[in-house]
DNA sequence: CATTGACATAAAGTCAGGTTTAGGTATTAC
DNA sequence: GTAATACCTAAACCTGACTTTATGTCAATG
């Protein structure tokens, strides 16, 4: 059993955030000892799932709904599974977008590297948009398609 | 040259957002014809960079700073390069985190698949935390490390 | 020549996800 | 016995990134 301060340290989250999550119903049935929250292994796993679902773009109110399903029991397995399947699809799409972003950033790094070397962008402007070095061209094309 | 409406269609962004970006100084030196904004190829590339930098987590006011550097000329190449290097590092870290998120989601999909099949979580609880099928164990370990 | 549609502005409003403030309790440390 | 520390609540506040509202201009259409 952990206090809110210990959990705050463990997860590197402000205490105020943990209290906010609790207020929003993300720890249904969490124990208390004379008013003080007692975080058990169940709440730690809940917190891991919260961080995961948040990162997948889910809103707090929908995470609350998921936690309510967990309390409801086996009848909500299909709801929970569908939720994770949906989030998985969304995160996979997000990864593709982020890779495109990363390729743009890599291209710009090369671009300014070259600009610094040349002292101007003249040569670069002549190479754009389709006479870039092969590996750079790939980055540029993926970032601009 | 494009009108705000055409750019809105091309980038699938609300007109209000484009006007907001302009107000925030993200299109320095954009032309106008009797008050009406004229988006040139320069503004379209700016918009691509805006989307990229936004996705990398940069705030509007810092994107504005970057656009100001672009106007300033060759003396700011190093500033611009450093900005992109920093964003690249941040996005690479983000990709690692997102992969961890994805592994958690994949694990949970398998988990509820199994729970639905079994009708309860008893067998699953016996397998946790280190007697999972090898491929699932990998997902679980990456998601929980 | 009035209405429609696309453009413009300034200023107020919205929203999620916290964070801060103000005030209080309970336990341990000197 | 008082001071520090860790916990508690309710409610107000904050922030960034838009979005909406209210009002107006201008060109082309019926």
Protein model, in words:
Two copies of one chain form a homodimer. Chain A is mainly alpha-helical and 145 residues long. Chain A folds into two domains: 1-72, Orthogonal Bundle (Multidrug-efflux Transporter Regulator, Chain: A, Domain 2), CATH 1.10.1660; 91-145. Chain A is 72% helix and 4% strand. The first copy, chain A, contains seven helices and two strands, in the order H-H-E-E-H-H-H-H-H. The first copy, chain A, has helices at 4-11, 15-23, 41-55, 60-72, 77-118, 122-127, 134-144; strands at 31-33, 36-38. Chain A has a two-stranded antiparallel sheet. In chain A, a hairpin with a 2-residue loop joins strand 1 (31-33) and strand 2 (36-38). In chain A, helix 5 crosses helix 7. Chain A is elongated, with a radius of gyration of 24 Å. Chain A starts with a helix and ends with a helix. The relative contact order of chain A is 0.08. The mean pLDDT of chain A is 97. Chains A and B meet through helix 3 and helix 5 of A and helix 3 and helix 5 of B. Chain B binds a DNA duplex (30 and 30 nucleotides) through helix 2.
